[in-house]
Each structure stands twice: as C-alpha cells, then as structure tokens.
Design brief:
The complex is a heterodimer of chains A (262) and B (181). Chain A has 262 residues and is of the alpha+beta class. Chain A folds into 2 domains: 46 residues, no CATH class; 143 residues, MucB/RseB, C-terminal domain (Phosphorylase Kinase, domain 1, 2-Layer Sandwich). Helix content of chain A is 48%, strand content 19%. Chain A contains 9 helices and 7 strands. In chain A, a hairpin with a 2-residue loop joins strand 5 and strand 6. Chain B has 181 residues and is mainly α. Chain B has 2 domains: 83 residues, Rna Polymerase Sigma Factor, Chain: A (Orthogonal Bundle), CATH 1.10.1740.10; 92 residues, Arc Repressor Mutant, subunit A, CATH 1.10.10. Chain B has 10 helices and no strands. In chain B, helix 2 packs antiparallel against helix 8, helix 3 packs across helix 4 and helix 8 crosses helix 10. Classes of the chains: A alpha+beta (262), B mainly alpha (181). At the A-B interface, helix 1, helix 3, helix 4 and helix 9 of A face helix 1, helix 2, helix 3, helix 4 and helix 7 of B.
Amino acid sequence: MPCAESLRVQAYFDGELDAIGAAEIERHCETCAECRELLRDLELLRTALRQDLTYAATPPALRDRIMRALDQESAASGARAVPKRFADWRSRPFWKGAFSAVGATAIAASLAFFLLAPPLSDPLLSDLVSAHVRSLMPDHLIDVASTDKHTVKPWFAGHTDVSPVVADFADQGYRLIGGRADYLDHQRAAVVVYQHGSHVINVFSWATARSGRPRAITRNGYHLSFWSAGNLEYCAVSDTGWDELDGLVRLLQALDAQDKRG
Amino acid sequence: MDDRRRRFEVLVLPHLDAAHRFARWLSHSSIDADDILQEAILRAFRGFDGLRGSDAKAWLLTIVRNCHFTALEQQRRRAQVPLPHENDAQDGRALVATTPDPEITSMRRDEERTLDRLMAALPQEQREILVLREIEEMDYREIAAVINIPIGTVMSRLARARAALKARWLKESAGEPHAVR
C-alpha cells in the first residue's frame, strides 16, 4: 500500500503544487522514507527519459511533403467554407468540464491570469516569440556553435552590445549549444542557446533601463521568463514546461550572483 | 501566400516537431506516423479558425491524437481481424521484433537503447502520458486537454505509467546486467 501522499509527492515533483502545498510535502518527506525514495525514482526516470530517448526531428522530406499538401489545401480552401468540425475543439471539453470542481478551478485560474496579467501590447513580447520561432527554422539557431563558454562569451563581444552570463549546465540537463546575435529593442541583443531534452531554450539579453515587465508570461504556447541582472535584461523563451524553464533561470541567476561576488 | 496561411505557419507550424514526435510515439509500430502527421496538419489548417489563445501546441497534439485513433480504427475495420493489442505485449522485444514496417526497422538501430524499447512496450495510454509530461513537458492542465480526461485521472495515470516503466526497467536490469547504464 503506497503512502497516501504519493500522488501529491508526484504533483510536487511535477511543479503542480502551490507554495503551501509544496512546503507541506517537503515537511512530509522529512519523515517519510517511502516518499523520499519516490522522489528519487521520479528524478532518475526523468533524467533517463530526457537523456536517452531517441528524438527525431521532422525529416526534411516529410516537412516538404506536408508543405506541398498545405499548398494544395490553401488553394482549395479559398473556394469553400471552413468545416466547423474542429472549430469547437476548445469549447466542448472546456464547458463540459466547467461544472466539475477541477473545471471551476481552471476557470478561476485563467480568470486570475487575465486579471493579473499586464496588458500584452508590449511589442517586445511578440518580437521575442518571433525571434524564438525564427531561430527554430533550419540554420537560424546558432551563429557560433560551441559547448564551451570560453568560445561563446568572447564571440558576443565582437557581435553584440552586451556580455551576458554563459555556462554549460549539461550536468543539470541544460546543454550549452551556442550563441547568436539578434536585433531586439533597437539594439544588438545576445542570445545564448541551450538544449534541454528535445527542446531549445533561447536566452535573450539586452541592455535596458526599463523595468516593470511581467516576470513570466505565456504566448502562443511559448513560455517567456524575464529577469534582470545589473544593467541587463534577460528573457528565456521555450516551449518547455515552466518548471524546466525556471530551472535554467535559477542556474543563470545564481551564476550572475556568483560572478558579482567574485 | 494569404494571411490565414501565414498565421498558421507562425502559430502552429513551429510545433511540427512536437507533433511529429508525438505521432511517432503514439503510433509506434501500429500505423504510419508520417501519414498521421500530414493528415493532422491538414485538419489543423482547416480548423485553424477554432484556435484561440495560447494553446496552439496542446491543440495540435489533440488533433494528432484524434487522427491516430481514426486511422487505427479504419485499419482495424479494413483488416476485419483485430490487430494484436499492444497491451497484450508483455515484452518489448516481442513487440519490436515482429514489426514488419520498414520505417520501424530503420528505427530499430536506435532502439537498441533500453529506454526506447521499454517505452515502446508500455501500453499506449501509459506511453502517451509519459511522452506528454516528460518529453513535451506539458503541465497537467495541458495534458488533460490533449487526452480529454480530468486532471485527477492525469495524476493517477501518470503515477501508474511511471511505476510501470520503473518496474520494467528494474526487471530488465535484473535479467541483463549490461543492458542498463
């Protein structure tokens, strides 16, 4: 019979608990050997899955085939109305679930999100997402390919206006794969590129005097996490989970703090 | 290129790789993942006007999943004989070794790797939830939307899937000490 808290321990591991719930689970694990072992197993399994599974990118031939099919479809769809069949994807399960407690919570959560979120008119947010998406196109990701920070960091000095923190966090699951220059907020921004499992994380950095940007925001399925250090503003963009993105943000912040002390 | 197509390329196509990975893991050996992916993208394009907000990825993966089950159903009906159900395969090697699909044969070199093989041997419903959580890194709410199950079920199914994979992993390492790192 597993410990009654095992599902909550899993939710804690997956970053699904609020601060109070997380504190409760941390306290529980101090006295429950079984749940401590569960946490270890979850971590082992995740590390193994993210490192060892085969990730195939879409083969170019398949991508071409799909683009051609889309061309035909675009040409044809000009002539006729769009079928309604999939148009209600969102509304159906959403309203069905709305009467359950979970659904109600989801509505409350999304309402809170809309109420608390600052206005999204900031063009920089769109620029960041576009730059991230553009970087995923073939041959756009990296200008300088290296897993060595001593190669990437000096490269920025000649190609951008800023000098961000750079490090390889392969041991923590964030592999440094290179750097890129991008134009952002009217200046040459530095982009450090990390790979996390099958996901690419772009860490943008540029000089700024502005503040008051949202700390975290989701746009079109991409998470954007902002922070600043010294006179630099950073933004990490990816389609990883929040937990995974925050993991890298914490590592970079710690590194920045360390650099300042040293 | 018209505006609608452009918006589709900006909003949805960046998730093509995720959709491709998901289609591969979903269908695994049972059906052609490339066809599923193409059908899903076309359906997504036709139903694109129904996409609102920021859930493009979850939305696309839901369509991939629907296409997969539709194709599977058609294949079963055409064959008149039910395919051996994946859940019946207790051993990953048995399942992989009997697939005739040439694409899978070429994948097999990669699948010498233990975890690929163990994942392949999991029941489809456990495999897909592990892929969504651990590979696609979606949160419980997004997973619930893709699979169309309540969040509570996401939690229990995920726990079962993780326990099952761990059990197979332990069994594997007990049987073949060199198979696991």
